[in-house]
Amino acid sequence: MVHLHITSWVLAIILALYVGHGYKNGQNVKVAHMILRLLYFVILGTGLYIFIDLPKDNMPSDLKMLYNIKMGLGIIMLGVFEYFTVSSKKKRKMLVPVTIFTILILALLYLGFRLPLNFDFFA
Ligand code: HEM
Q: Whole-structure pTM over 0.85, yes or no?
């Protein structure tokens, strides 16, 4: 499930950049945008699945908080993908969407890889 999670957000990042540039250059990227929107559900579904599947009984509360921040930022990121692509489609200035996009992705990569997958909570 983690592999599917990683695959889906890697694909989504590549597609979002492709769609954003495509709209800017007046290309027809409607199908790519549609696939990107489908990926939001895969990212959300796999992320929630991983979390629900974890043993949480003995999880320290600071770790629980990190998971909540990770998931909250992950959900916000799905909205930022749309903000990024639609801003480009509407020919708005891209500085703010690009900045938020980059900061959120970096924060998610940091948090995601920092979180202890397969951590032994009973040790
Ligand atoms: C575009 C958005 C997202 C990005 C870039 C992202 C990135 C990541 C990364 C880098 C990891 C670590 C994978 C590993 O340790 O091998 C991860 C794991 C995880 N993600 Fe996401 N994620 C996103 C969205 C979400 C969403 C929406 C949720 C849930 C609502 C979520 C929940 C999780 C959970 C529970 C883990 C397991 C963390 C662990 O125990 O190591 N993610 N994600």
A: yes
CA of 28 from ligand 1 middle (Å) equals 31
d(CA 115, CA 92): 36
DSSP calls for 34-98:
HHHHHHHHHHHHHHHHHHHHS--TT--HHHHHHHHHHHHHHHHHHHHHHHHHHHHHTT---HHHH
Q: How many residues does the chain have?
A: 123
Residues 116 and 111: their CA atoms lie apart, in Å, by 10
Q: pLDDT tens digits, residue range 13-38?
A: 999 999 999 999 999 999 999 999 99
> Is there a contact between 56 and 15 (Cβ–Cβ < 8 Å)?
no
Distance 96 CA to ligand 1 centre (A): 24
Decide whether any atom of ligand 1 lies within 6 Å of the 70 Cβ.
yes
